Amino acid sequence: MDGAAAPARPAGLSAYVAVSQALGLTLLLTTGAWLGRYRGGVAWQSALRLNVHPLCMVLGMVFLQGDALLVYRVFRNEPKRSTKALHALLHGLALLISLVGIIAVFESHRAKGIPDMYSLHSWCGMAAFVLYLLQGLLQ
């Protein structure tokens, strides 16, 4: 495939990517505004540590993971090595930021004496994170 012509970009891809980025940034901004206005903000060394969780999950598991999935479509005419590196970098950042969000929950629960993994939300979230981690490890 080295001598083959690069495939044409699908019609409307730029518009779809622009909409997805706009929606992702809107979600990040509204999450940040919600945390700032109604939940008191975000801080690691206080009772606000739990608020780190939703911000990290939206940034990592939604925004960065979505961008990592789009890399091969958006940069289809770039060298494969470059797109693979960017894809891996975005997935790695998503994993790292999501891990910070999970640690924030466990640390907040430990500080307040709340048991861990007591809700369906926590079990489904942990399952999603572990499956995401396993997918990255087993590729």
From TrEMBL:
Protein function: Transmembrane reductase that uses ascorbate as an electron donor in the cytoplasm and transfers electrons across membranes to reduce monodehydro-L-ascorbate radical in the lumen of secretory vesicles. It is therefore involved the regeneration and homeostasis within secretory vesicles of ascorbate which in turn provides reducing equivalents needed to support the activity of intravesicular enzymes.
Residue intervals passing through the bilayer: 15-35, 55-75, 87-106, 118-138
Catalytic activity: monodehydro-L-ascorbate radical(out) + L-ascorbate(in) = monodehydro-L-ascorbate radical(in) + L-ascorbate(out)
Record carries keyword Nuclease: no
Membrane topology of the entry: Multi-pass membrane protein
Location of the Cytochrome b561 domain: 19-139
Keyword Membrane: yes
Source organism superkingdom: Eukaryota
GO molecular function, a single term: metal ion binding
Main location: membrane
Keywords: Cytoplasmic vesicle, Electron transport, Heme, Iron, Membrane, Metal-binding, Translocase, Transmembrane, Transmembrane helix, Transport
Listed name of the protein: Transmembrane ascorbate-dependent reductase CYB561
Cofactor: heme b
Gene3D superfamilies: 1.20.120.1770
InterPro entries linked to this entry: CYB561/CYBRD1-like, Cyt_b561/ferric_Rdtase_TM
Compartment(s) where it occurs, according to its Swiss-Prot or TrEMBL record: Cytoplasmic vesicle, Secretory vesicle, Chromaffin granule membrane
GO cellular component: chromaffin granule membrane; lysosomal membrane
